[in-house]
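Run log // design_07
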């Protein structure tokens, strides 16, 4: 099971299960980031089924995702099959880049951040939200033990056990956002925690405007 196949196999059940696992909070968590992004043109990186589309208005949206099976459920007017590590757009195209629950699946955060910086206009903003682990050592252990039981059971209930065992391991892939995003071409404006025990993280970054 790799990040290349996991989402194409669960595309038709992804939204339902995501809502259950986040106790219906996934859109609220996306919105804490989207509400801080400028209007204009927005790239939804790893857009999946387009769950965030209802909260993007009045922006003009381009959705990219490597899984065409996820994009088929996405009603964004512009959809592109691609990865974050190699964006098929000209320099300085977007006012904002948004990415929800994607970063732990990337092959390279470093290349993706370089690409985000390249396609953002000067002064443009990037907003990221993803699942990680709570910051304290004890709460982190408790959370890891919890997801080792809950995620495979949730996966079993929709016939995708292997996929959700894979997802149980992905929150451990990266250090906390303050470390993960400390050295990118963008300025780290803010990071904050969401959800029970703070296992969801969000970050806001800005491209320097040297004009
Ligand atoms: C958990 S889903 C999140 C989908 C959507 N952003 C949301 O909020 O519901 C993760 C998405 O990231 C996509 N993805 C995986 N690897 C990627 C990569 N290297 N670049 C961009 N997207 C990727 C997957 O295909 C999947 O649609």
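design_07 sequence
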């Amino acid at each position: 099971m790799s990040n290349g196949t996991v989402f194409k196999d669960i595309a038709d059940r992804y939204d339902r299960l995501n809502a259950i696992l986040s106790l219906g909070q996934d859109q609220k968590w996306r919105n804490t980031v989207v509400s801080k992004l400028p209007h204009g043109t927005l790239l939804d990186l790893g857009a999946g089924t387009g769950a965030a589309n209802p909260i993007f208005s009045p922006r003009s949206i381009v959705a990219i995702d490597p899984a065409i099976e996820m994009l088929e459920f996405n009603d964004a007017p512009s959809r592109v099959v691609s990865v974050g590590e190699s964006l098929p757009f000209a320099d300085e195209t977007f006012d904002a880049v948004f990415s929800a629950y994607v970063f732990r699946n990337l092959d390279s955060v470093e290349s993706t951040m370089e690409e985000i910086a390249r396609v953002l206009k000067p002064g443009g903003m990037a907003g990221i939200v993803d699942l990680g682990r709570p910051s304290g050592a004890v709460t982190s252990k408790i959370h890891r033990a919890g997801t080792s039981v809950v995620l495979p059971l949730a996966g079993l209930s929709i016939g995708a056990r292997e996929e959700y065992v894979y997802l149980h391991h992905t929150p451990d892939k990266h250090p906390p956002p303050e470390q993960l995003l400390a050295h990118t071409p963008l300025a780290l404006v803010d990071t904050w925690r969401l959800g029970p025990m703070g296992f969801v993280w969000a970050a806001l970054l800005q491209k320097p405007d040297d004009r």
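Residues 85 and 108 are 7 Å apart (CA to CA).
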